Automatic annotation (TrEMBL):
Taxonomic placement: Bacteria, Pseudomonadati, Pseudomonadota, Alphaproteobacteria, Rhodobacterales
Ranges annotated as spanning the membrane: 35-56, 76-106, 139-160, 167-189
Name of the featured protein: Cobalamin biosynthesis protein CobQ
Assigned keywords, A-Z: Membrane, Transmembrane, Transmembrane helix
Superkingdom as given in the UniProt entry: Bacteria
Length: 190
């Protein structure tokens, strides 16, 4: 899924009105599994000046990058963190780890040839889904509109739930726009 959708769903499920620490943890947990990708891509493209085709065609699949993705996309590690948070009754940690697990649950079935080793350290196996959230050769033409629709529904839920918080309502609006607008633009381009 696209990162804005992950943030929307993490906030919708684990965010709590009038509990900024928990809400911030939910947003962080929804973002962390993608954060290393943004850092490595940003560094490669904008600091190192590496061509995007190399970044996404070679570096993304390199042993180094995949080693990082194994850690921040591991059901095992996030599941252990979630279990520990439940045991210790740490609401913010439950939101953090829960939102990260939700991120992984949405990503797992939506990556065809660009998935992650979600069960590391037990195995380096990568599930090759028949579906993709971005690759039209693997049903993105169906998946992407569903993702957009679900994101809008969850975004409206957030707005209603957090109506008293201008920050969260505004953030939700930005996330919904970030999720929907590129899809509408690409629909017209193609």
């Amino acid at each position: 899924m696209n990162t804005p959708a992950h943030l929307i769903f993490g906030l919708a499920v684990f965010g709590r009105p009038n509990a900024s620490r928990i809400t911030a943890a939910a947003l962080a947990g929804a973002l962390i599994p993608d954060a290393s990708l943004y850092v490595m891509v940003g560094w490669s493209l904008f600091v190192m000046g590496i061509d995007a085709r190399i970044v996404f065609g070679e570096l993304y699949f390199s042993d180094l990058w995949q080693a990082v993705f194994r850690i921040d996309n591991s059901f095992i590690l996030w599941g252990a963190g979630f279990a520990a948070a439940l045991w210790l009754r740490l609401d913010w940690a439950i939101a953090l780890c829960g939102a990260a697990l939700l991120h992984l649950l949405f990503d797992f079935p939506l990556h065809h040839d660009d998935g992650r080793a979600h069960f590391w350290p037990l195995t380096d196996w990568i599930y090759q889904s028949p579906l993709s959230y971005w690759d039209r050769n693997h049903y993105a033409g169906i998946v992407a509109p569903i993702e957009m629709g679900m994101s809008l529904i969850a975004g409206v839920f957030i707005v209603r739930r957090f109506w008293g918080s201008k920050l969260i309502v505004g953030l939700s609006g930005v996330l919904m726009a970030a999720q929907v607008v590129p899809g509408l633009i690409w629909a017209f381009v193609f």
